[in-house]
């Protein structure tokens, strides 16, 4: 049971990191698009 809880926490951490990376990448893409428009 403890191991399952640990993996669940790790999965949550990984999901948060993945969403953060995706957010940063989306921000960079938006900035690049804004630069291209000018």
Describe the structure.
The chain is 95% helix and 0% strand. The protein is built from 1 helix and no strands. The mean pLDDT is 89.
Features:
mainly alpha; 0% strand
Q: In short, what is this structure?
A:
The chain is mainly α. It has one helix and no strands.
Tell me, rounded to a whole number, the average pLDDT.
89
Which structural class fits the helix and strand makeup? mainly alpha
| Beta-strand share of residues | under 5%
H and E order: H
| Count of strand segments | 0
The number of distinct helices, counting runs of at least 4 residues, comes to 1
Distance between the termini: 56 Å
Task: Report the major sheet.
Answer: none
Low-confidence stretches: none
Oligomeric state of shown chains: single chain
Shape: rod-shaped
SSE topology:
Elements: H1 2-37
């Amino acid at each position: 049971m403890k191991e399952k809880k640990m993996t669940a926490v790790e999965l949550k951490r990984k999901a948060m990191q993945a969403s953060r990376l995706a957010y940063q990448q989306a921000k960079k893409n938006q900035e690049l698009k804004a630069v291209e428009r000018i």
